[in-house]
Each structure stands twice: as structure tokens, then as C-alpha cells.
Specification:
single chain; 312 residues; alpha/beta; Rossmann fold; eight-stranded mixed beta sheet; 8 strands; 19% strand; globular
């Protein structure tokens, strides 16, 4: 396994994780946003950016509509990564724009509540509420209700996977799951946790810290609302596009989730990003390989959204 040279160079410039975690939360969040802004590249133009809110929940939504699409448009409800603690729609604005342009879908980025101020299951409840709001207000947003998927990166991928099964159980299935190096289990017991415990960006210690902030003192790591890999019944879940990074502590659990869905008869496209570390889309501006991988994944997303819920 050889890291992509552009990713390796970027990781060499990254701040030390223990030092970053020692900062006050506000400074940690600001440093995270600054670091992404240095590597994610210039935001691509889109046809329209609009802002919405869910009044009774206080959840903000930012919608990105690409050019040259006919309404109603497919949509992806997107949850940003950051270990449920850091990140926001602003930090992931360039990624959301890039997905919208490549998949030819509206991307609706959700500003869910963050831990530790709002521990588990607050982020989950916000994610479910936001997706249900999009489905219920599809005509207002100009999107096709039958072609609404959920997606996200890292912790956002975790939220998307949970939303997919929660809405399945509520009789409001989504069209697909678009999961980018997702967190799927709180157990942290895979080989990739050992093989890539340090030196590849996100460390095993980082994830232990994020889980502690998210679950707090009362969250159950085996609750499928936290660990969708542990869901008892995966049948009937939305088709999935799952991207794992080769040099990532989360690689094995992402791929285990893909296999779990396949066994349950769920259509899955699995992409292992060779030579990539966790959160490689944060380096869209510095890594041609990362851009190519996003092109591939977003093309799959566009094809799946063109099918819609009725064919799942």
C-alpha cells in the first residue's frame, strides 16, 4: 500500500491530532475549517444556492442546484463529516457543490446539532427530521420526491446510513445511500483500526475521542442508531454507493457494511479508494486522484438517483 503522493504531502503538513484535540472547542472547530479551506480547492459555481430552515427544529439547510437540469430534479440530503463534533455546511461547501455538478442533482446540506453540547441522539434526530422535511416539501424545493437520496462523509455517512433504515421503518424509503468513508460501528475492533492506528490522518485515538464526545456517558455503542452495522435487519434498505479509503481506520467497517447490505439483497456499489487516507475529499484542490474518485462516485450517484425509489 502506497499513499497517493499528494495526499501524503498534505498529511505531512497536518497539525498533530492530540494537539488539535487539546484546543477549546471553538478553536478546534475554527482550525478544522481553516485546514479544509487550504486544501479543498476553490468552490465550483452552481446555478443556484438557496437557504431554508425548519422552524420548529432550528435546523438550517443549504441547497445547491447545478446548471442545466430540468425540474423536478433528483436530490441528495447531505450530512457533513467531522466526528459529530466539528465541521459544518460551510466547511463542506466545495464538496457539496462538486457532488451537485457531477451527479446532476440538488445537494441539500444539513446543519445538524453537534456534540458534545448536543450528544447522541441529537444529530440523528436532526438528520431524520431534515430528510423527512425535504421529502414533505419536495415540490417547494423543486426536487423529485421519488429520487431523494441521503449521503455524507465520515460521521455524516453514519447519519445517512441511520436515516436510511429509520425512514425505511417509517414507510418513507429514500432512493439511495451515498456513503463516503462512513463510520458504521462504535466497536472499533477491526484490523484497519490496528493497521492504520496512526500516521494516516485520522487516528484510532481520534475516533475514540470522537465517540466519547458523541455518545457521552449514556449512549450505547451497540445501538444501531449509533452503529448501523449492528442493525438487526438490513433487508429492504436503500441501494448504496459506499466509498472506503484504503489507508483509513474506518475502511473495514465501511466495507463490512457494504457486505452486510449485499447479503441482505440490497444493491451495492463498493469503491475502495486505493492510496487514499480518510477524508480524502478534503484534498480536492490538491489531489487529482481525489477528484477522479469523486467523479467516479458521483457518476454512480447520478445513475442511481435517475432510477428512484420505485425501482429499489
Amino acid at each position: 500500500m502506497h499513499l497517493d503522493p499528494d495526499i501524503a504531502a498534505a498529511l505531512a503538513r497536518d497539525p498533530d491530532s492530540p494537539l488539535l484535540r487539546s484546543l477549546p472547542l471553538s478553536e478546534m472547530r475554527a482550525e478544522h475549517d481553516r485546514a479544509i479551506a487550504e486544501t479543498v480547492g476553490t468552490p465550483e459555481p452552481v446555478e443556484l444556492v438557496s437557504h431554508h430552515s425548519i422552524p420548529d427544529r432550528g435546523i438550517g439547510l443549504t441547497s445547491y442546484q447545478p446548471a442545466d437540469v430540468r425540474r423536478p430534479v433528483p436530490a441528495l440530503v447531505f450530512f457533513h463529516g467531522g466526528g459529530w463534533v466539528i465541521g459544518n455546511p460551510g466547511s463542506h461547501d466545495p464538496i457539496a457543490r462538486a457532488i451537485a455538478n457531477r451527479a446532476k442533482c440538488v445537494v441539500i446540506s444539513v446543519e445538524y446539532r453537534l456534540a458534545p453540547e448536543h450528544p447522541f441522539p441529537c444529530s440523528v434526530e436532526d438528520a431524520v427530521a431534515a430528510t423527512r422535511w425535504v421529502l414533505d416539501h419536495a415540490s417547494l424545493l423543486g426536487v423529485d420526491r421519488e429520487r431523494v437520496g441521503v449521503g455524507g462523509d465520515s460521521a455524516g455517512g453514519n447519519l445517512a446510513a441511520v436515516v436510511a433504515w429509520r425512514l425505511r421503518d417509517q414507510g418513507q424509503p429514500v432512493a439511495c445511500q451515498f456513503l463516503l468513508y462512513p463510520v458504521t460501528s462504535a466497536l472499533q475492533d477491526t484490523r484497519s483500526y490496528r493497521d492504520f492506528a496512526s500516521g494516516f490522518g485520522l487516528t484510532a485515538d481520534d475516533m475514540a475521542w470522537f465517540w466519547s464526545q458523541y455518545l457521552g456517558s449514556s449512549g450505547d455503542p451497540r445501538d444501531p442508531n449509533a452503529s448501523p452495522l449492528l442493525l438487526a435487519d438490513a433487508t429492504g434498505l436503500a441501494p448504496a454507493i459506499i466509498v472506503s479509503a484504503e489507508a483509513d481506520v474506518l475502511r473495514d467497517e465501511a466495507e463490512a457494511y457494504a457486505e452486510r447490505l449485499r447479503i441482505a439483497g440490497v444493491p451495492v456499489v463498493g469503491i475502495r479508494a486505493l492510496g487514499m487516507s480518510h477524508a480524502f475529499l478534503n484534498f480536492l484542490g490538491t489531489s487529482p486522484a481525489a477528484r477522479s474518485l469523486l467523479d467516479m462516485a458521483a457518476r454512480e450517484l447520478g445513475e442511481r438517483l435517475s432510477i428512484g425509489v420505485r425501482a429499489t
